[in-house]
C-alpha cells in the first residue's frame, strides 16, 4: 500500500529501470530519461540540497516551468522534508515577492538568472536577508547581481556535488524515506486569485496519495502497459501535478510539450492518454468543425449524420450501464420504458456505430490515432464538446476538483461516461449537495457541493479566517460550486456560487451554461455574461480573429474598420448584428433557455486574452479582471440606449 508520494519514482525504478520516464526537447533533439536515470537524479539533487542546508520544515519558493528538473526538484524537496511553494517562471515579480514572503520561504529556486534580475526591485531588503540560498536551474556566465552572488548555486554543480556525496552515503534516500509521514506537509500551493492576494493551500502526502490511488484505476493505467502521455499544463498546478504522480505510480512515459507545439506533438508522439482543460477541446472542436464545413456537401452531411448516430448509440449504451441524467425520481414503469427505448435505440444504431468507427479514423488521427482516454478538468466541459468528441471516437471523461482537494473529488469513468455530468465521487470520498439550510437537496434541486475525504486540505497557510469559512469541524469542505444530482447519483456541476447573477427581477442566473453554449459558435473564443442588478443579460464576447477577418472580407471591410484601436472593441454595425444574431440563435427557447436567460446585447472585443491577465493558467476567464478592463464599455452597454453605431 502506498504510504507517501516520495515512494513513487523509486518503486517504478525498481520494477521498470529501463522504461522511459521522461522525454523532452533540448534544442532540435528529443532527450529521454529512464526511471533508473530519474531515481538517480533525485538522489543526486537530494544530496546536493542537503549539503546546502535544506532541511525538514524549510519552505522553498520554487518558480520554474515544466521540465525534467521540475519533477526531480519536487521529489528531492520531499525527501528532505522541505515544503515546496511552487509557481511558474512567468509569475510576475510582485506575485513572487508576495508568495515568497507570505509563505515564509527561506530558499529561492528560479529557472534563469533573468528572473533573478527581474526580482531585484520587487524583493525588499528583509526578503533578501531571509533568503539563505538562491538555486538556478539554467547556468549563466553573467548578469548576476553582485550583492547576491554569494548566495547562488547552479543546478549542474548541485548534481555533480550530489554525485560525489552519494559515494559516502549511497543509502541516503532510504534513510530519508523511513522518516516520511503521510501527514507531513508536502506543498503550499497559492491559488490563482482573480482579486486580491492568492491563498496558500496546504497539502500533505495523504492528500496526494488519495488522488493517486483513486484516480489510477479510473484512467485505466497500469504498469504492465507501456503507455505515453503528453503534458502541457503547468506542473505546479495541482491538476497536472497529481496526474504526473499517477504517471510515476503506473510507470508511464511523460512527454513535455507546450501550448505552441501541442497539436504537432499529438501527431508525432501519439499519446495513449492526456489530460487537458475545456479551452483546449474548444480550440480543437473549432478547427474540426471548420475542416468539416469546407468539405463537399454530401460528405459534410454524411459526417454530421454519423456523429448523431454514434451519439445516440453511445447515450443508449451509457444508459444501459446506469449512466444517464434524470433530474426527477421516476416510477419503476417509466424507468422500464426508458430501458426498453434505449435497448432498441442501441440495437438499431449499432450498424451505424460500426461504420462511424471507420469513417472517423482521420479525426482520431489528428490526436495521434491511439488515444485511449482523455480527461478534461479544471473547468466545466460543455456538453456539446462531450457529444461531438466521444461520437468521433475520441473518448473524453469529465473530472471535477479543486486545489483544496489535491485536486480530485468527482469524475466519470471509462465504463460509465455519461455526457453532460461530472460523474461520481472518488473512492473514500463523500459528496453532498446542500441547500442553504444545510440539508441535502432532492434529485434535480440545485445546491452547493460539499466534500469530505482524505484528499481535503488541512487549511490555508496563515489564514485561519479563510480556512474556517470553507472547512468545518467535521472535515466537510464547502467548495462554493453549484450542482444538481441526477436520479442515479451522478453530479452535474452548473456553476459557481460567487458567479451567480441576480437580475432586477430577482431571477438567479448561472452564467457558465450560457457561456458554454455561446462558445459553440466558431466566432466566439471566450464569453463573460453580465447583468448583476440589471433588467436583462448582456455579454462580453472575445471574437476569434480568423473568423472575424473572414467575415470582414465577406462584408468588404478593412481591419481598421472592424476593430477600434485602443479599446479593442468591435463596433461595425454589420459585424455587430451578425454576431448578435449568432448569439441569439444559440441562447434561445429552442435551445432550452428561459426568457430571462436570453442575451439582449453583446460587447464584441478582439480576442487578445492571455494567461496571467484575462485567463488563469488553466485558461478559465477571470471575470472580475475582464469586467474591470472593459468597465467603460460595459457602462455604455448597460446605460447608453443610443449606442453610437459605426456604419
Query: What does the largest sheet look like?
Result: 9 strands, mixed
In terms of DSSP E residues, the strand content is 15-25%
Rg is 26 Å
Overall average pLDDT: 91
CATH architecture of the largest domain: Roll
Report the total helices. Answer: 23
Low-confidence stretches at least 5 residues in length (pLDDT < 50)? Answer: 641-647
Question: How would you summarize what this structure contains?
Answer:
By secondary structure, the chain is of the alpha/beta class. It has three domains: 7-180, Rossmann fold (3-Layer(aba) Sandwich), CATH 3.40.50; 278-498, Luciferase, domain 3 (Roll), CATH 2.30.38.10; 500-639, 2-Layer Sandwich (GMP Synthetase, Chain A, domain 3).
Question: What is the topological layout?
Answer:
Layout: H1 7-15, E1 20-26, E2 29-34, H2 35-52, E3 59-63, H3 68-79, E4 83-87, H4 93-102, E5 107-110, H5 113-119, H6 125-130, E6 133-136, E7 152-154, H7 155-166, H8 172-177, E8 185-190, E9 200-204, H9 205-219, E10 228-231, H10 238-249, E11 253-256, H11 262-269, E12 273-276, H12 278-293, H13 297-320, H14 332-359, H15 361-365, E13 373-376, H16 383-391, E14 396-401, E15 408-411, E16 424-425, E17 430-434, E18 447-452, E19 459-460, H17 464-470, E20 477-485, E21 491-496, E22 501-502, E23 508-509, H18 511-518, E24 524-530, E25 537-543, H19 545-554, H20 559-562, H21 573-586, E26 599-606, H22 623-629, H23 631-639
Parallel strand pairs: 1-11, 3-4, 3-5, 5-6, 6-7, 10-11, 10-12, 12-13, 13-14, 25-26
Antiparallel strand pairs: 1-2, 8-9, 9-19, 14-15, 15-16, 17-18, 18-20, 20-21, 22-23, 24-25
Helix pairs in contact: 1-2, 2-3, 2-7, 9-10, 13-14, 13-16
Amino acid at each position: 500500500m502506498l504510504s507517501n508520494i516520495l515512494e513513487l519514482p523509486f518503486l517504478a525504478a525498481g520494477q521498470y529501470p529501463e522504461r522511459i520516464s521522461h522525454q523532452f526537447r533540448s534544442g532540435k533533439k528529443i532527450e529521454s530519461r529512464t526511471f533508473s536515470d530519474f531515481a538517480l537524479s533525485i538522489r543526486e539533487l537530494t544530496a546536493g540540497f542537503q549539503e546546502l542546508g535544506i532541511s525538514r520544515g524549510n519552505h522553498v519558493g520554487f518558480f520554474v516551468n515544466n521540465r525534467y528538473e521540475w519533477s526531480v526538484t519536487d521529489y528531492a524537496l520531499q525527501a528532505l522534508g522541505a515544503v515546496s511553494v511552487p509557481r511558474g517562471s512567468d509569475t510576475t515579480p510582485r506575485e513572487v515577492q508576495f508568495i515568497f514572503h507570505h509563505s515564509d520561504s527561506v530558499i529561492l529556486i528560479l529557472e534563469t538568472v533573468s528572473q533573478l534580475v527581474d526580482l531585484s526591485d520587487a524583493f525588499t531588503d528583509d526578503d533578501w536577508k531571509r533568503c539563505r540560498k538562491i538555486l538556478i536551474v539554467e547556468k549563466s556566465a553573467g548578469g548576476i547581481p553582485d550583492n547576491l552572488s554569494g548566495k547562488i548555486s547552479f543546478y549542474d554543480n548541485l548534481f555533480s556535488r550530489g554525485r560525489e556525496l552519494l559515494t559516502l552515503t549511497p543509502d541516503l534516500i532510504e534513510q530519508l524515506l523511513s522518516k516520511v509521514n503521510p501527514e507531513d506537509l508536502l506543498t503550499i500551493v497559492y491559488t490563482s486569485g482573480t482579486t486580491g492576494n492568492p491563498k496558500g493551500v496546504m497539502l500533505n502526502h495523504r492528500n496526494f496519495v488519495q488522488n493517486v490511488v483513486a484516480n489510477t484505476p479510473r484512467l485505466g493505467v497500469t504498469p504492465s502497459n507501456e503507455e505515453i502521455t503528453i503534458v502541457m499544463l503547468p506542473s505546479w498546478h495541482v491538476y497536472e501535478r497529481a496526474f504526473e504522480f499517477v504517471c510515476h505510480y503506473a510507470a508511464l512515459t511523460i512527454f513535455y510539450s507546450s501550448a505552441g507545439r501541442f497539436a504537432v506533438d499529438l501527431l508525432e508522439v501519439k499519446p495513449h492518454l492526456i489530460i487537458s482543460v475545456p479551452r483546449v477541446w474548444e480550440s480543437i472542436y473549432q478547427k474540426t468543425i471548420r475542416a468539416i464545413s469546407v468539405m463537399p456537401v454530401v460528405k459534410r452531411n454524411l459526417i454530421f449524420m454519423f456523429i448523431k448516430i454514434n451519439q445516440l448509440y453511445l447515450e443508449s449504451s451509457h444508459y444501459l450501464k446506469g449512466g444517464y441524467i434524470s433530474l426527477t425520481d421516476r416510477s419503476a414503469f417509466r424507468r422500464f420504458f426508458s430501458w426498453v427505448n434505449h435497448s432498441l435505440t442501441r440495437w438499431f444504431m449499432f450498424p451505424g456505430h460500426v461504420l462511424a468507427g471507420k469513417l472517423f479514423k482521420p479525426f482520431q488521427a489528428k490526436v495521434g490515432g491511439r488515444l485511449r482516454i482523455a480527461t478534461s478538468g479544471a473547468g466545466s466541459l460543455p456538453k456539446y464538446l462531450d457529444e461531438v468528441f466521444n461520437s468521433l471516437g475520441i473518448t473524453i471523461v469529465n473530472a471535477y476538483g479543486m486545489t483544496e482537494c489535491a485536486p480530485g473529488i468527482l469524475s466519470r469513468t471509462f465504463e460509465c461516461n455519461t455526457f453532460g455530468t461530472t460523474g461520481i465521487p472518488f473512492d473514500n470520498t463523500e459528496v453532498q449537495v446542500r441547500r442553504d439550510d444545510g440539508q441535502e437537496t432532492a434529485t434535480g434541486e440545485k445546491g452547493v457541493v460539499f466534500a469530505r475525504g482524505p484528499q481535503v486540505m488541512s487549511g490555508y497557510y496563515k489564514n485561519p479566517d479563510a480556512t474556517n469559512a470553507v472547512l468545518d469541524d467535521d472535515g466537510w469542505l464547502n467548495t462554493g460550486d453549484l450542482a444538481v444530482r441526477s436520479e442515479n447519483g451522478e453530479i452535474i456541476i452548473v456553476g459557481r456560487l460567487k458567479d451567480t447573477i441576480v437580475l432586477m427581477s430577482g431571477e438567479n442566473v448561472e452564467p457558465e451554461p450560457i457561456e458554454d453554449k455561446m462558445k459553440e459558435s466558431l466566432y466566439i473564443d471566450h464569453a463573460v455574461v453580465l447583468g448583476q442588478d440589471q433588467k436583462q443579460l448582456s455579454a462580453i464576447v472575445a471574437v476569434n480573429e480568423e473568423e472575424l477577418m473572414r467575415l470582414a472580407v465577406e462584408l468588404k471591410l478593412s481591419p481598421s474598420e472592424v476593430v477600434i484601436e485602443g479599446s479593442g472593441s468591435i463596433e461595425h454595425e454589420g459585424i455587430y448584428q451578425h454576431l448578435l444574431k449568432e448569439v441569439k440563435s444559440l441562447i434561445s427557447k429552442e435551445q432550452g433557455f428561459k426568457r430571462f436567460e436570453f442575451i439582449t446585447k453583446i460587447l464584441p472585443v478582439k480576442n487578445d486574452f492571455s494567461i496571467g491577465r484575462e485567463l488563469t493558467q488553466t485558461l478559465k476567464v477571470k471575470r472580475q479582471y475582464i469586467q474591470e478592463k472593459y468597465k467603460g464599455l460595459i457602462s455604455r452597454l448597460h446605460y447608453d440606449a443610443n449606442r453610437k453605431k459605426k456604419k
